[in-house]
Amino acid sequence: xxxxxxxxxxxxxxxxxxxxxxxxLNDVRVAFLGKKGELTAVLxxxxxxSPEERPLVGQMVNETRAAIEQKLEETKKKxxxxxxxxxxxxxxxxxxxxxxxxxVGHGHPNTIALEEVERIFxxxxxxxxxxxxxxxxxxxxxxxxxxxxxxAKDEQDTFYINDKIVLRxxxxxxxxxxxxxxxxxxxxIAPGRVFRADEVDATHSPSFHQIEGLVIxxxxxxxxxxGTLQEFAKELFGPETKVKFRPHHFPFTEPSAEVDVxxxxxxxxxxxxxxxxxxxxxxxxxxxxxxVLEMSGIDPKEYSGFAFGVGLERIALLKYEIxxxxxxxxxxxxxxxxx
Length: 339
Fold this sequence. Notes:
This is Phenylalanine--tRNA ligase alpha subunit. Tetramer of two alpha and two beta subunits. This protein is α+β, with helices and mostly antiparallel strands. The protein has 2 domains: 2-90; 109-336, Bira Bifunctional Protein, Domain 2 (BirA Bifunctional Protein, domain 2, 2-Layer Sandwich), CATH 3.30.930. It is built from 11 helices and 9 strands. The strands form 2 sheets. A 7-stranded mixed beta sheet has the order 1-4-5-9-8-7-6, with helices on both faces. Strands 2-3 form a two-stranded antiparallel sheet. Helix 4 (54-90) runs antiparallel to helix 5 (109-123). The chain starts with a helix and ends with a helix.
């Protein structure tokens, strides 16, 4: 894996050096940093790296990405300067014409937020795992200790294809599928699109995204969960961020909690952004319920673990101070080009 990252870095830098024009430079960006790029493929291969080496490899992945992005930006500026110089020499400029800008696209706010979260957890040694959006009722509910009469299974909240297949309402089924494989310890996050029968408004949508995390190992405690989420909050919202855990109930974790962070606008003093409370709720978490472990073939007497889940749109709305999540889906260029 280390040699592969080194090869990708050298190959990317060489491709940037040999690229011709801004279009060629953008092709290099997509080839290495895009959704199906070579570096992204390495992230999906983190599951093959031993748990001891994952933090180091995760750090190397982040360093490789940073080096490639820095080289891309430097080369882009040089190309733009050379292009302008060439035009000034070769063309007669009509100063009455409006200026033309050669715009290069960039990531959607959701994508930018997701990459930031993945960077944080990959740096902690987590692997990124994906799963099917059309899921069996068993994985979406039963294997998560959600009984048949639970309100979450009501057709008003869940899109049913038939009595056994649903559009997943969370990415927790990916965690169950990984646990069933029996390859312990587990340290993973599962980002992806989920579906619920919600009315569209400023804070709800029938289709949105979640990022759920899972750690299973010997001797894992609630203290490990608190420490992990505190470091995550500091990396995402700033080093002065504090976290608060409030008791809650989730069928698949026991004990469970909801997590608040100090408002990053006022530092916890209270402002319009946090509605004067000084705290903002960001996610739910808890220790994996022993029955959930048993159903996946893991001995709860030997292993324990924690899980957490956060809405990707919620992170984007908070981080970029967006007050209506519908803006994320309208594809209005006036809005998107601000990021």
